[in-house]
Write a structure and sequence with these properties.
By secondary structure, the protein is an alpha/beta fold. It is 29% helix and 29% strand. The protein has a seven-stranded parallel β-sheet with strand order 3-2-4-1-5-6-7, sandwiched between helices. Strands 10, 11, 13, 14, 16, 25 and 26 form a seven-stranded mixed β-sheet that branches. Helix 1 crosses helix 7.
Length: 447
Amino acid sequence: MRRIMLCGTNSGCGKTTVAAAILQALLNRGVRAASFKCGPDYIDPMFHSRIIGAQSYNLDRFFCDDDTLKFLFEKHSREADISVIEGVMGFYDGGQASSHELSQALNVPAVIVVDCKGMGTSVGAVIKGFLSYKATNNIAGFIFNRLSERLLPETRKICEELHTEFLGYIPYCKNAEIQSRHLGLLTADEISDLQTKAQILAEAAEKYVCLDRLIELSNAGHLGGFKAPVLTRIGITKKKPVVIAAAADAAFCFTYRDNMELLEELGCEIRYFSPLSDKKLPENSRGIILCGGYPELYAEQLSENTAMLSEIRERILGGMPTIAECGGFMYLHETLENADGKQFSAVGVIKGRAFKTEKLQRFGYVNLTAKRDNLLCKAGEKIPAHEFHYCESSDAGEDFSAEKTNGEVYSCIHAGENIYAGFPHLYFYANPPIAENFVKKCMEYTG
């Protein structure tokens, strides 16, 4: 099980660019690569998936214990020649969920990406700092993003003096830039020439990155023993799987693939639909998942699809079990505000309006505690989750208490017998019983 982790000195240093370059270069060589993202990010795995033509998965130590991480990593890596994990933020950032901690848990060699724009020999201080900050760090070497060719000899010399490996560089490639917006990079589906950009980066990686050495450095050893999660196929009724309708289009695209696969493991059939263009939910649906995304960018189009708005409203009010996270939660409001501040009619299950703000409202991991029995759990039970949104609600809910890792506590989420609707995102492998409870409620729903 060859595995390597591409980490960074900080957010924005070029981890995704380097990961895309290396994944495409490996693909061009005929190497089967599996890809992963450290942490809760949705967008980077979309880029990985578009490049390798297969699903990319998250690995998150806030959500999962090491047994579950090893289980998921082994499950998704077993058909690959090499697995490439993209880190999160800076290598040491994030506490228990940091790239450093994940590299220790999975015994993965870590390669640090350094953004060299505006920097010369000071890169040596950066390298030395990362090597010495923690004695046990799995750092195998460094790749230098946007390194000027004239600084190449000096950078090689610095690596040699600090007893670490120079593993290549990526020069500035203007034609391969990927644009950003308020939640990060544009999504892969929004970039029409992504494959062209990926090939430009792959050519740079083949020419300037030590790909053969990266493969040699990758750990081919066993993960060690682990205990797999125990799941029961409960979602079968009269030998037919329970059908879950899951939103998937340009407005709703933030889905953890592992969530869908866990529901399938429980015996469900996932049928995807578009709130933007479909007029009705998939046939025989007994539950709805409205994931996050960018509904505020498509507020007018969503509002014009009155048939879908009406059906979802009637189904939820009629008792259909529904999970609505972040963008999906916004969609359930009476009105949804677009980026220009114009309001449009939405589903109307949540009384109030969802609107865009100019700054990040919530960011980071939270532990949720239920204040009342609900669709997913009993009062007093806890669920780990993650928030990341600029938009806000005039009524974010009061049915859960959320505690951030810094100790801040606040109320959130609308939760009842058939609904979970709020800004926090869920990862089912963090607490499989919540998925099981959702499926059981879907089995009970008769419509």
